[in-house]
Amino acid sequence: MEEKNKYNQCLLLNGYEFLDFENTKNTTLKEWLKDENFLLFIKSIPKDYIFIIKKYSIANGIFLTHKKTFEFAQKILEKVKDINFDFSYSEFEFNQNIFYALNFKNKEISFTELVFSFKINSLDRESFDISNIYNKKHFIIQKDNSLITFKYRKIQSKGFNLVFLLENNILKNYYFNYLEKINPYIAKDFKNIKENHSFEIYKLLRIDFNVLINCHSVQEVIEKSLNTKINFNLNKFDIHLALSFAISLNFIAKNEQNKLYKFVLENNKLIYDYIDFINNNFAN
Predict the structure, then answer these.
(1) Beta bridge partners of 94
(2) I need a labelling partner for 19 at 20 to 30 A (CA). Which of 3, 76, 177, 188 fits?
(3) Are residues 76 and 105 in the same domain?
(4) Shared-domain flag, residues 122 and 255
(5) How do residues 105-145 score in pLDDT, each as one tens digit?
(6) How far is the C-alpha of 232 from the C-alpha of 261, rounded, in Å?
(7) How far apart are CA 177 and CA 158, in angstroms?
(8) How far from 275 is each of 38, 171, 172, 271, CA to CA, in Å?
(9) Which branch of life, at top level (predicted)?
């Protein structure tokens, strides 16, 4: 009980709550727990994983994540919560199927300690959405066990989101040419990205547009985005790696920061070669 209270106190800071399936008051979840397959799935989850629920204005999201992952994510969210935000909506297509036809494997959980393995969004009181990030399948299971697949789209707000830019070749070429005229420094950084993994790396990067066009170096972009001075040369990295490194400095002892910088600097090319290898051999 003390552990649950610990997570609730932490989760509520960002609108999250710890979800205890055994004591849930949600009527739909209670019905789901009567399903033997769903119950077996819940009971098979390792003890070092937790369920958390995020309450949105039009939907509730339920996430399964490793305790250490969540605790680390909380620290990062606190540091970057004011940088940017966006909105989203979904399009639905109806199909008929049953919940326990979905193939959940415990090994999927054990291999995903650094990311969410799936999520369940309550779009209303009668249905839940399950998204498996590895086979890229998205479902909504209704109370009557009918299944809805859906397409997910994002609507940009406030900042510069690279999702649409990197998905659309015409828009990408036009925008890079435009950006190169007003900011050749940043445009050059984007153009040097290897095509086969650029989308996967950069699609979640959000930078305030005014910062992007008015800064003349990666260092300046990162420092203005995070509103802090970074005592390392970030211009040797691309924007995404520079941002990741800058954020990580908040959680690393000062006497270890130089070691980390040297490691990242020496292994920068190796990291991207490894990403290429993963994409070429394991990507769907």
Answers:
(1) 148
(2) 76
(3) yes
(4) no
(5) 333 333 332 222 334 444 444 444 444 444 445 555 555 55
(6) 8
(7) 22
(8) 35, 25, 22, 6
(9) Bacteria
Domain co-membership, 129 together with 164? no
Maximum separation of any 2 CA atoms in the chain, in Å? 61
Q: Are strands 137-142 and 147-155 parallel, antiparallel or unpaired?
A: antiparallel
What angle is formed at CA 90 by the lines to CA 86 and CA 92, rounded to 5 degrees?
175
Q: Which long-range contacts (CB under 8 A, 24 or more apart) does 11-14 make?
A: 11/52, 13/74, 14/74, 14/77, 14/81
What's the domain range around 39?
2-155
DSSP 140: E
Q: What are phi and psi of 113, to 5 degrees?
A: -70, -20
Residues 137, 188, single domain; the answer is no
Mean pLDDT of 7-18: 54
Same domain, 59 and 151: yes
Residues contacting residue 24 through CB under 8 Å, at least 6 positions apart: 30, 33
* Residue 89 sits in the same domain as residue 186: no
Q: How far apart are CA 264 and CA 146, in angstroms?
A: 48
Among 129, 155, 181, the domain boundary falls at 155
Strand partners, 158: 85
Task: Give the separation between CA 221 and CA 242, rounded to whole angstroms.
Answer: 10
Alpha carbons 18 and 6: distance in angstroms, whole number: 9
Are residue 52 and residue 179 in the same domain, yes or no?
Answer: no
- Where do runs of H (alpha helix) occur along 33-168? 36-43, 67-80, 106-110, 162-167
Alpha carbon distance, N-terminus to C-terminus of the chain: 42
What pLDDT band is residue 231 in, cutting at 50, 70 and 90?
A: very high
DSSP assignment letter at 96: -
173-196 pLDDT tens trace:
555 555 566 555 666 665 555 444
Most confident listed range (50-59, 110-119, 149-158):
50-59
